[in-house]
Amino acid sequence: MNEFYSAVESLRFSTWIRESGSIWSYPIVLTLHTMGLAILVGFNWAVDLRLLGFAPSVPVGSMKNFFPLMWFGFWINLVSGVILLMADATTKMTSWVFGVKMLFVILGMIILRKIQTGVFHPEKEDLVQDGKLLAGLSLTCWVLATTAGRLMAYLGPQVGLSGPQIK
Ligand code: HEM
């Protein structure tokens, strides 16, 4: 597998992201990644906290409109994340911290889908009652995913991406 990771990492595009020094390469991709997670995790937290009883005056049903935004944030993170991964495949694909982060991203998205289709279901009367457990699990997943994501820069194998000086 390592040959495959090195082949991906030495693609012209991966090398440009990693070494070009252009503001439009690694810096902008990481900025998009940060914005994607802010949208996804930020709105998901708002829905989870409401389902846990915060801000009871906010009508739960109206938060249904946040789901397309959360999916938009996720797609930004999938695309920017795969680009970041290509640029540092040999390090990230062997990093246990990256594995932990992706586990909680996947669990977080499965629970988001369950809340979207299960809790925000038109027939459902007491949305809050149904969503409490899922909301608690969702909050936990996003705390762990974000923490593992940030700690990748300090834990596990460190070669990769620190971003060359901007020219
Ligand atoms: C969906 C697929 C995703 C992939 C393939 C992915 C991949 C990556 C990679 C490769 C990095 C390392 C960048 C670097 O070394 O500078 C990274 C950083 C990070 N990711 Fe993701 N990611 C994904 C989604 C997410 C999501 C949904 C979150 C939300 C919790 C997230 C949170 C983070 C954080 C906090 C960082 C650290 C950013 C920094 O160092 O400033 N990622 N991601």
In this entry the ligands are: protoporphyrin IX containing FE
Q: Into how many domains do the coordinates divide?
A: 1
Order of helices and strands: HHHHHHH
Rounded to the nearest angstrom, the radius of gyration is: 18 Å
* Average pLDDT number: 90
Shape label: elongated
- Biggest β-sheet, characterized? none
Instruction: Please tally the helical runs, counting DSSP H or I stretches of 4 or more residues.
Output: 7
Estimated helix fraction: 55-70%
Q: State the separation between the terminal residues, measured CA to CA.
A: 34 Å
3D structure, described in words:
The protein has one domain. The chain has seven helices and no strands. Helix 3 packs antiparallel against helix 7. The longest helix is centred in the first third of the chain and has 26 residues. The site of protoporphyrin IX containing FE has 24 residues, from helix 3, helix 4 and helix 7.
Please give a quick description of this structure.
The chain starts with a helix and ends in a 16-residue tail after the last helix.
SSE blueprint and pairings:
Layout: H1 2-9, H2 12-19, H3 26-51, H4 67-87, H5 89-92, H6 96-119, H7 127-151
Helix pairs in contact: 2-4, 3-4, 3-7, 6-7
The structure holds protoporphyrin IX containing FE (HEM).
